[in-house]
Amino acid sequence: MLESRLLTFLTVAKIKNYTKAARILNLTQPAVSGHIKFLEEHYGVKFIKKKGRNIDLTEEGEEFLQYVKELEIKERKICKKLKNKSSVVKNYNIGATLTIGGYVLPKILGKYKESYPNIDIILTVNNTKEILKKLLREEIDLGLVEGPFDRKKFGYKRLKEDELILAFSPKHKFSKEKYIQLEDILSGKLILREEGSGTRKYFENTLLDEGYSLNDLNIYMEVGSIDAIKALVEANLGYTIISKAAIERELKLGVIKTLPIKNNEFNEVKFNREFNFVYLLGSVNNYLSSFMEFCFNSIV
Question: What confidence tens digit (pLDDT) does each residue in 193-203 have?
Protein backbone atom coordinates (compact mmCIF):
# COMPACT_ATOMS: atom_id res chain seq x y z
CA MET A 1 0.00 0.00 0.00
CA LEU A 2 1.27 3.46 -0.89
CA GLU A 3 2.29 5.76 1.96
CA SER A 4 -0.78 7.79 3.00
CA ARG A 5 0.60 11.16 1.88
CA LEU A 6 1.42 9.81 -1.58
CA LEU A 7 -2.06 8.31 -1.85
CA THR A 8 -3.49 11.70 -0.91
CA PHE A 9 -1.40 13.39 -3.60
CA LEU A 10 -2.56 10.87 -6.23
CA THR A 11 -6.21 11.49 -5.34
CA VAL A 12 -5.85 15.29 -5.30
CA ALA A 13 -4.02 15.21 -8.64
CA LYS A 14 -6.86 13.19 -10.16
CA ILE A 15 -9.84 15.00 -8.59
CA LYS A 16 -8.28 18.51 -8.56
CA ASN A 17 -10.37 19.50 -5.59
CA TYR A 18 -9.42 19.26 -1.89
CA THR A 19 -12.98 18.88 -0.58
CA LYS A 20 -13.90 16.04 -2.98
CA ALA A 21 -10.55 14.33 -2.42
CA ALA A 22 -11.08 14.48 1.35
CA ARG A 23 -14.50 12.85 0.94
CA ILE A 24 -13.05 10.02 -1.18
CA LEU A 25 -10.17 9.42 1.25
CA ASN A 26 -12.42 9.70 4.32
CA LEU A 27 -10.24 12.49 5.69
CA THR A 28 -10.86 16.07 6.73
CA GLN A 29 -9.95 18.82 4.29
CA PRO A 30 -7.25 20.20 6.66
CA ALA A 31 -5.71 16.71 6.78
CA VAL A 32 -5.56 16.57 2.98
CA SER A 33 -4.01 20.05 2.84
CA GLY A 34 -1.53 18.99 5.53
CA HIS A 35 -0.42 15.97 3.51
CA ILE A 36 0.20 18.10 0.42
CA LYS A 37 2.00 20.76 2.47
CA PHE A 38 4.26 18.11 4.03
CA LEU A 39 5.27 16.77 0.59
CA GLU A 40 5.92 20.28 -0.79
CA GLU A 41 8.07 21.21 2.23
CA HIS A 42 9.92 17.89 2.11
CA TYR A 43 10.87 18.30 -1.57
CA GLY A 44 11.17 22.09 -1.43
CA VAL A 45 8.89 22.78 -4.41
CA LYS A 46 5.25 23.63 -5.04
CA PHE A 47 3.16 20.80 -6.45
CA ILE A 48 -0.24 22.51 -6.40
CA LYS A 49 -1.46 25.83 -7.76
CA LYS A 50 -4.86 27.48 -7.45
CA LYS A 51 -7.16 27.49 -10.47
CA GLY A 52 -10.40 29.25 -9.57
CA ARG A 53 -12.22 27.11 -7.01
CA ASN A 54 -10.22 24.08 -8.01
CA ILE A 55 -6.50 23.36 -8.17
CA ASP A 56 -4.02 22.21 -10.79
CA LEU A 57 -0.55 20.73 -10.81
CA THR A 58 2.60 22.75 -11.35
CA GLU A 59 5.25 21.48 -13.74
CA GLU A 60 7.02 19.92 -10.74
CA GLY A 61 3.70 18.46 -9.62
CA GLU A 62 3.21 16.75 -13.00
CA GLU A 63 6.71 15.27 -12.78
CA PHE A 64 6.12 14.08 -9.22
CA LEU A 65 2.79 12.54 -10.30
CA GLN A 66 4.56 10.33 -12.85
CA TYR A 67 7.01 9.22 -10.16
CA VAL A 68 4.18 8.34 -7.75
CA LYS A 69 2.30 6.44 -10.48
CA GLU A 70 5.42 4.36 -11.17
CA LEU A 71 5.70 3.64 -7.44
CA GLU A 72 2.05 2.56 -7.39
CA ILE A 73 2.59 0.15 -10.30
CA LYS A 74 5.71 -1.35 -8.72
CA GLU A 75 3.99 -1.67 -5.33
CA ARG A 76 0.97 -3.40 -6.89
CA LYS A 77 3.24 -5.77 -8.79
CA ILE A 78 5.34 -6.84 -5.79
CA CYS A 79 2.23 -7.11 -3.61
CA LYS A 80 0.61 -9.52 -6.06
CA LYS A 81 3.83 -11.50 -6.46
CA LEU A 82 4.30 -11.93 -2.71
CA LYS A 83 0.64 -12.81 -2.09
CA ASN A 84 0.62 -15.40 -4.88
CA LYS A 85 3.85 -16.89 -3.56
CA SER A 86 2.46 -17.49 -0.09
CA SER A 87 -1.20 -18.09 -0.94
CA VAL A 88 -2.83 -21.43 -1.72
CA VAL A 89 -5.18 -19.66 -4.17
CA LYS A 90 -3.39 -17.63 -6.86
CA ASN A 91 -5.01 -14.54 -8.41
CA TYR A 92 -4.35 -13.21 -11.90
CA ASN A 93 -5.93 -10.36 -13.85
CA ILE A 94 -6.92 -10.83 -17.48
CA GLY A 95 -8.32 -8.09 -19.70
CA ALA A 96 -10.46 -8.86 -22.75
CA THR A 97 -12.35 -6.87 -25.32
CA LEU A 98 -16.15 -7.04 -25.41
CA THR A 99 -16.57 -9.72 -28.08
CA ILE A 100 -13.92 -12.00 -26.59
CA GLY A 101 -14.89 -11.33 -22.97
CA GLY A 102 -18.57 -11.85 -23.63
CA TYR A 103 -18.67 -14.66 -26.20
CA VAL A 104 -15.32 -16.52 -26.32
CA LEU A 105 -13.67 -16.51 -22.89
CA PRO A 106 -16.52 -17.45 -20.51
CA LYS A 107 -16.65 -21.13 -21.56
CA ILE A 108 -12.86 -21.37 -21.54
CA LEU A 109 -12.62 -19.83 -18.06
CA GLY A 110 -15.24 -22.27 -16.79
CA LYS A 111 -13.16 -25.22 -18.01
CA TYR A 112 -10.00 -23.62 -16.66
CA LYS A 113 -11.46 -23.27 -13.16
CA GLU A 114 -12.44 -26.94 -13.18
CA SER A 115 -8.87 -27.90 -14.12
CA TYR A 116 -7.14 -25.40 -11.82
CA PRO A 117 -9.40 -24.77 -8.78
CA ASN A 118 -6.60 -22.95 -6.91
CA ILE A 119 -6.23 -20.25 -9.56
CA ASP A 120 -8.71 -17.38 -9.70
CA ILE A 121 -8.97 -15.38 -12.92
CA ILE A 122 -10.27 -11.83 -12.47
CA LEU A 123 -11.66 -10.74 -15.85
CA THR A 124 -11.88 -7.10 -16.92
CA VAL A 125 -13.88 -6.36 -20.09
CA ASN A 126 -13.39 -3.16 -22.09
CA ASN A 127 -12.54 -1.98 -25.58
CA THR A 128 -9.13 -2.54 -27.18
CA LYS A 129 -7.85 0.96 -26.40
CA GLU A 130 -8.61 0.65 -22.68
CA ILE A 131 -7.28 -2.92 -22.38
CA LEU A 132 -3.94 -1.82 -23.85
CA LYS A 133 -3.82 1.11 -21.41
CA LYS A 134 -4.42 -1.22 -18.47
CA LEU A 135 -1.68 -3.53 -19.74
CA LEU A 136 0.83 -0.67 -19.94
CA ARG A 137 -0.10 0.40 -16.40
CA GLU A 138 0.31 -3.25 -15.32
CA GLU A 139 -3.23 -3.31 -13.96
CA ILE A 140 -3.71 -6.60 -15.82
CA ASP A 141 -1.28 -9.47 -16.45
CA LEU A 142 -2.50 -10.37 -19.93
CA GLY A 143 -4.81 -8.93 -22.56
CA LEU A 144 -6.98 -10.52 -25.24
CA VAL A 145 -7.90 -8.04 -27.95
CA GLU A 146 -9.70 -8.01 -31.28
CA GLY A 147 -8.38 -4.66 -32.49
CA PRO A 148 -5.11 -3.48 -34.05
CA PHE A 149 -2.23 -2.76 -31.66
CA ASP A 150 1.41 -1.72 -31.83
CA ARG A 151 3.20 -5.00 -32.51
CA LYS A 152 6.56 -3.41 -31.71
CA LYS A 153 5.43 -2.33 -28.25
CA PHE A 154 3.70 -5.55 -27.13
CA GLY A 155 4.39 -9.25 -27.30
CA TYR A 156 1.51 -11.21 -28.83
CA LYS A 157 0.19 -14.64 -29.80
CA ARG A 158 -2.78 -15.35 -32.05
CA LEU A 159 -5.64 -17.18 -30.37
CA LYS A 160 -7.97 -17.58 -33.36
CA GLU A 161 -9.34 -15.90 -36.47
CA ASP A 162 -12.64 -14.07 -36.44
CA GLU A 163 -14.97 -12.70 -39.10
CA LEU A 164 -17.05 -9.53 -38.99
CA ILE A 165 -20.36 -9.84 -40.82
CA LEU A 166 -23.37 -7.74 -41.70
CA ALA A 167 -26.30 -8.25 -39.30
CA PHE A 168 -29.88 -7.08 -39.88
CA SER A 169 -33.45 -7.93 -38.98
CA PRO A 170 -35.50 -10.32 -41.18
CA LYS A 171 -37.92 -7.37 -41.49
CA HIS A 172 -35.26 -5.12 -43.02
CA LYS A 173 -35.28 -4.49 -46.77
CA PHE A 174 -31.86 -6.14 -47.00
CA SER A 175 -33.52 -9.51 -46.41
CA LYS A 176 -34.98 -9.41 -49.94
CA GLU A 177 -31.54 -9.26 -51.55
CA LYS A 178 -28.92 -11.89 -52.43
CA TYR A 179 -26.04 -9.64 -51.38
CA ILE A 180 -25.58 -6.08 -50.13
CA GLN A 181 -23.34 -3.48 -51.71
CA LEU A 182 -20.93 -1.67 -49.43
CA GLU A 183 -22.26 1.64 -50.74
CA ASP A 184 -25.74 0.82 -49.41
CA ILE A 185 -24.35 -0.04 -45.98
CA LEU A 186 -22.58 3.30 -45.73
CA SER A 187 -25.64 5.32 -46.72
CA GLY A 188 -28.26 3.78 -44.39
CA LYS A 189 -28.89 3.31 -40.68
CA LEU A 190 -25.55 1.84 -39.67
CA ILE A 191 -25.07 1.10 -35.96
CA LEU A 192 -21.45 0.76 -34.85
CA ARG A 193 -19.38 0.35 -31.71
CA GLU A 194 -17.64 3.35 -30.14
CA GLU A 195 -14.23 4.62 -31.20
CA GLY A 196 -11.50 2.59 -29.54
CA SER A 197 -13.25 -0.73 -30.16
CA GLY A 198 -11.52 -3.39 -32.25
CA THR A 199 -14.63 -4.06 -34.34
CA ARG A 200 -14.93 -0.39 -35.27
CA LYS A 201 -11.23 -0.09 -36.13
CA TYR A 202 -11.18 -3.18 -38.38
CA PHE A 203 -14.29 -1.99 -40.22
CA GLU A 204 -12.73 1.43 -40.77
CA ASN A 205 -9.44 -0.09 -41.98
CA THR A 206 -11.31 -2.26 -44.49
CA LEU A 207 -13.15 0.80 -45.81
CA LEU A 208 -9.82 2.53 -46.38
CA ASP A 209 -8.53 -0.57 -48.19
CA GLU A 210 -11.60 -0.41 -50.44
CA GLY A 211 -10.79 3.18 -51.38
CA TYR A 212 -13.28 4.94 -49.14
CA SER A 213 -12.63 7.85 -46.81
CA LEU A 214 -13.78 7.77 -43.20
CA ASN A 215 -15.85 10.83 -44.13
CA ASP A 216 -17.99 8.40 -46.14
CA LEU A 217 -18.88 6.63 -42.89
CA ASN A 218 -22.37 7.80 -41.97
CA ILE A 219 -23.05 6.38 -38.49
CA TYR A 220 -26.70 6.30 -37.44
CA MET A 221 -25.97 5.20 -33.86
CA GLU A 222 -22.78 4.67 -31.86
CA VAL A 223 -23.30 2.12 -29.06
CA GLY A 224 -20.79 0.71 -26.56
CA SER A 225 -22.71 -2.47 -25.69
CA ILE A 226 -22.85 -5.51 -27.99
CA ASP A 227 -26.09 -6.71 -26.38
CA ALA A 228 -27.67 -3.29 -26.95
CA ILE A 229 -26.59 -3.31 -30.60
CA LYS A 230 -28.11 -6.77 -31.10
CA ALA A 231 -31.37 -5.63 -29.50
CA LEU A 232 -31.53 -2.57 -31.79
CA VAL A 233 -30.90 -4.74 -34.85
CA GLU A 234 -33.55 -7.29 -33.82
CA ALA A 235 -36.01 -4.40 -33.40
CA ASN A 236 -35.20 -3.31 -36.99
CA LEU A 237 -33.92 0.07 -35.87
CA GLY A 238 -30.79 -0.31 -37.96
CA TYR A 239 -28.13 -2.82 -38.98
CA THR A 240 -24.54 -3.40 -37.93
CA ILE A 241 -21.18 -4.95 -38.64
CA ILE A 242 -20.45 -7.40 -35.85
CA SER A 243 -18.40 -10.45 -34.94
CA LYS A 244 -19.94 -13.68 -36.17
CA ALA A 245 -19.07 -15.19 -32.77
CA ALA A 246 -21.33 -12.65 -31.05
CA ILE A 247 -24.49 -13.49 -33.02
CA GLU A 248 -24.25 -17.26 -33.59
CA ARG A 249 -27.26 -17.87 -31.35
CA GLU A 250 -29.38 -15.18 -33.05
CA LEU A 251 -28.48 -16.49 -36.51
CA LYS A 252 -29.59 -20.02 -35.50
CA LEU A 253 -32.87 -18.67 -34.10
CA GLY A 254 -33.47 -16.61 -37.25
CA VAL A 255 -34.01 -13.32 -35.37
CA ILE A 256 -30.97 -11.84 -37.13
CA LYS A 257 -29.91 -12.44 -40.72
CA THR A 258 -26.72 -11.86 -42.68
CA LEU A 259 -25.71 -11.59 -46.34
CA PRO A 260 -22.44 -11.22 -48.24
CA ILE A 261 -21.14 -7.69 -48.85
CA LYS A 262 -19.84 -6.68 -52.28
CA ASN A 263 -17.95 -3.62 -53.50
CA ASN A 264 -18.52 -1.59 -56.69
CA GLU A 265 -16.69 -4.22 -58.73
CA PHE A 266 -19.06 -6.85 -57.28
CA ASN A 267 -16.22 -8.57 -55.46
CA GLU A 268 -17.07 -9.90 -52.01
CA VAL A 269 -15.70 -7.77 -49.18
CA LYS A 270 -14.34 -9.79 -46.26
CA PHE A 271 -13.82 -8.41 -42.77
CA ASN A 272 -11.37 -10.91 -41.32
CA ARG A 273 -9.34 -10.26 -38.19
CA GLU A 274 -7.50 -12.00 -35.36
CA PHE A 275 -8.09 -12.44 -31.65
CA ASN A 276 -4.66 -11.94 -30.07
CA PHE A 277 -3.16 -12.37 -26.65
CA VAL A 278 -1.09 -9.27 -25.89
CA TYR A 279 1.41 -8.82 -23.07
CA LEU A 280 4.33 -6.65 -22.05
CA LEU A 281 7.60 -7.78 -23.56
CA GLY A 282 9.53 -9.95 -21.14
CA SER A 283 6.54 -10.40 -18.81
CA VAL A 284 5.50 -13.95 -19.75
CA ASN A 285 5.89 -16.32 -16.80
CA ASN A 286 4.99 -19.99 -16.42
CA TYR A 287 1.42 -19.14 -15.47
CA LEU A 288 0.77 -16.96 -18.51
CA SER A 289 2.33 -19.52 -20.83
CA SER A 290 0.23 -22.37 -19.42
CA PHE A 291 -2.95 -20.26 -19.47
CA MET A 292 -2.46 -19.33 -23.12
CA GLU A 293 -1.73 -22.95 -23.99
CA PHE A 294 -4.95 -23.98 -22.23
CA CYS A 295 -6.91 -21.44 -24.28
CA PHE A 296 -5.35 -22.63 -27.55
CA ASN A 297 -6.36 -26.20 -26.76
CA SER A 298 -9.89 -25.16 -25.74
CA ILE A 299 -10.71 -23.39 -28.99
CA VAL A 300 -12.81 -25.55 -31.30
Answer: 988 888 898 89
